[in-house]
Amino acid sequence: MEAYLILKVLWWLLLGVLLMGLAIMVGMDMGVGTLLRYVGRTDTERRVALNIIGPHWDGNQVWFILGGGAIFAAFPLIYGTAFSGLYVVMLLLLWSMIVRPLGFEYRSKLPSAGWRNAWDWTLFISGFLPMVIYGAAIGNMFRGVPFHFSWDMTSYYTGSFISLFNPFAILTGLLSLSLSIYMGGAMLMGRSEGALYERARSAVAFGGGVAVVLFTIGGVWVANMQGYQIVTAPDPGTAQTPLQQTVTLADGAWLGNFRSHAILWLVPALGYAGMVLGVLAARTHKPTLAWWLGALAWIGVIGTAGTALFPFMMPSSSNPSQSLTVWNSISSELTLSWMTGWAIVFVPLILWYTSWAFYVMRGKVKGEAVEADDHAY
Predict the structure, then answer these.
(1) In terms of residue numbers, what domain contains 93?
(2) Residue 376 CA neighbour count, 13 Å, CB half
(3) Residue 313 lies in a domain
(4) Is 326 domain-assigned?
(5) Mean pLDDT score of the chain, rounded to an integer?
(6) What is the pLDDT of residues 278-334, one digit of tens each?
(7) Mapped to the 3 state alphabet, what secondary structure does 10-52 carry?
(8) At what angle do helices 87-106 and 76-85 cross, to 10 degrees?
(9) Are 95 and 25 in contact (CB under 8 A)?
(10) pTM for the structure as a whole
């Protein structure tokens, strides 16, 4: 039982790491897409921006695949409930990401200004929309998702598509977008020059400043929001279902973990430190430091959400007692054991390969080099 409990907590932590990696790496190239029409005032400048992220954007999708795969294998009940109930949102996310590689590959195939302008808008939408959905999804976990289970564990979603974009979800979606803009700007700063560099630097300051404001508003909002708390449930280390617990709502319950363990306040402090110091680093022309501080900001923001929600992962607003938690939505001990073994092998390999790719592709991207290269984006 103790081993199973440890594996449950371990995979909650690993899922958090994967979601952070997704936000940092995928959010970075999504941010470049969102900023493309702002930082690039000429066709050459836009091509430079695309070729800065060009060697990395498809590799960064590994984090997206890893996150979805980890939910599928480690938390199958969450995967089945979310992907079936939130089908329209999933399709919207999928289609926005399908057109993204088309934008990279086809934009510069024809010299027509209209052709390239159309693909620029496609890249903007495919950068903007996924990050808003990503943040809104996390925000909805605090509000609760309208689903419930029947006696045989069949899930029923009772909400609407529009209800998922409630005011709090919009706020968290914009927070996600602002951090994406920050990371995209920091990436562009590190490998560009001249006017593009300066516009990217202003984007970092804008994204970081907005993120600080939205993170603060969100924190106050959560503190005054009704949260979920477990009243009765089986032992966390045992196999269980959502039908075996009692959950109630209480004012300020989402801050319960922080009240019980004061050291956890360091997690949102990391978020603030990353955002504020990152903006200062960008203002003093230190793009590499600004990038790493942006990554720290993402770790702090997602870590804060996970810490506040724990052990809840997908609360139910229709029937709070059927909320999905770390304890009742996870795979068997044997499955988690096998997954842990493979994760020990492949996660370090992914980190090594990603680091190696960034090292090899370091340096400034110049407009004249892009124009002279027939294989450039």
Answers:
(1) 2-372
(2) 21
(3) yes
(4) yes
(5) 91
(6) 999 999 999 999 999 999 999 999 999 999 999 999 999 999 999 999 999 999 999
(7) HHHHHHHHHHHHHHHHHHHHHHHHHHHHHHCCCHHHHHHHHHH
(8) 80
(9) no
(10) 0.92
